[in-house]
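In this section we walk through a basic example: taking a raw amino acid sequence and producing a predicted 3D structure, encoded as discrete structure tokens. The instruction is simple. Fold the sequence below.
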Amino acid sequence: MAEPLSDNKIADELGSLPGWEHANDKISKEFSFDNFRDAVAFINRIAFEAEEQVHHPEIFNVYNTVNISLSTHDAGGKVTGKDITLAKTIESLYN
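The resulting token sequence is shown next.
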């Protein structure tokens, strides 16, 4: 089972993840795209990476906006290193 990170450790990790926020035991970020097709393509790329990491985000999409939230169910819904790793992967897909 993954261990929850401390608030200080989460803050340190988010220093390298611009735009990501920590609240309500999750890290989250909103991503914007030129159109719906690009937003859905991004979601599809995330799906393949998340499946490889066996860690699945909460994803919410409206038109050209994608909201991602991450926490680890096995750690009681808290933020763990698995969330930080997936957030970094998501960032690499966006850039």
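Looking at the output, two observations stand out. Residues 20 and 29 are 5 Å apart (CA to CA). Helices lie at 7-14, 36-53, 81-94. In the next section we compare this with other chains.
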